Amino acid sequence: MSRLVVVHPDADVLAQAAAARLLTRVLDVQSVRRPVHVVLTGGTVGIKTLAAAAVSPLVRAVDWTGVHLWWGDERFVPSGHADRNETQAREALVDALVASAGLPEANVHPMPGPDVAASPEESAAAYAEQLAAFAPEGAEVPVPAFDVLLLGMGPDGHVASLFPGHEALQAGGTAVGVHGSPKPPPERVSLTFDAITAAREVWVVAAGAEKAERAAAALAGQPVSEVPAAGATGTEQTLWLLDTAAADAP
Ligand SMILES: O=C1O[C@H](COP(=O)(O)O)[C@@H](O)[C@H](O)[C@H]1O
């Protein structure tokens, strides 16, 4: 597994570059296999990246009929709620792909909210079932072979909804219900580390000085219990896309 750290001048350039890289990655994968599985993230740069992808000319080069979109985590609030990572991703990119680029709605896999599932655990179980349905035969971890798994990183070093010191860090299976998240809302659903580390490529996107200390700690290999981002690795590549502020550890 190779690890690469790429630093961009600011959050806007980072989002533009991440979007170009993401679309190019989908195109490259499409030339050798189908379907392509991409895991989206919430968070500031994550959503900015999707918005940049939406206006890139490269978006028209992708055959969206052969792409599946998943989420790394979700806030356990109802469908359409502004706090949902799904809602923000749909507004930034996904709705336009479904409306006019051929992305089948059936290929969009949001994590169920309380309007669909009775609890974060029920949502996680339903999501794990969907993931397993798309896993390659005989896969060690029953998830699709994610071609790119995007993750934002919080100032505390959390990725997806896996927070420092939280019991969800040790969860088995592929998706977990999260209670008592230190960042609101308190109830969430997240992929587990087993699911994340089964991805071919994991990309961590982070911008801003408030992320610098934790980014440096993760890259230095601090314990995952303290800096969850340290455990976000892909089987083929781990890519950190930072802006100069996030790369500039004190
Ligand atoms: O709550 C969340 O936060 C992280 C990071 O967000 P940011 O705004 O600090 O970039 C995000 O990656 C995660 O998906 C989300 O649910």
UniProtKB/TrEMBL annotation:
<comment type="similarity">
    <text>Belongs to the glucosamine/galactosamine-6-phosphate isomerase family. 6-phosphogluconolactonase subfamily.</text>
</comment>
<dbReference type="InterPro" id="IPR039104">
    <property type="entry name" value="6PGL"/>
</dbReference>
<dbReference type="InterPro" id="IPR005900">
    <property type="entry name" value="6-phosphogluconolactonase_DevB"/>
</dbReference>
<comment type="pathway">
    <text>Carbohydrate degradation; pentose phosphate pathway; D-ribulose 5-phosphate from D-glucose 6-phosphate (oxidative stage): step 2/3.</text>
</comment>
<dbReference type="GO" id="GO:0005975">
    <property type="term" value="P:carbohydrate metabolic process"/>
</dbReference>
<dbReference type="InterPro" id="IPR006148">
    <property type="entry name" value="Glc/Gal-6P_isomerase"/>
</dbReference>
<keyword id="KW-0378">Hydrolase</keyword>
<comment type="function">
    <text>Hydrolysis of 6-phosphogluconolactone to 6-phosphogluconate.</text>
</comment>
<protein>
    <recommendedName>
        <fullName>6-phosphogluconolactonase</fullName>
        <ecNumber>3.1.1.31</ecNumber>
    </recommendedName>
</protein>
<dbReference type="GO" id="GO:0017057">
    <property type="term" value="F:6-phosphogluconolactonase activity"/>
</dbReference>
<dbReference type="Pfam" id="PF01182">
    <property type="entry name" value="Glucosamine_iso"/>
</dbReference>
<dbReference type="GO" id="GO:0006098">
    <property type="term" value="P:pentose-phosphate shunt"/>
</dbReference>
<dbReference type="InterPro" id="IPR037171">
    <property type="entry name" value="NagB/RpiA_transferase-like"/>
</dbReference>
<feature type="domain" description="Glucosamine/galactosamine-6-phosphate isomerase">
    <location>
        <begin position="9"/>
        <end position="240"/>
    </location>
</feature>
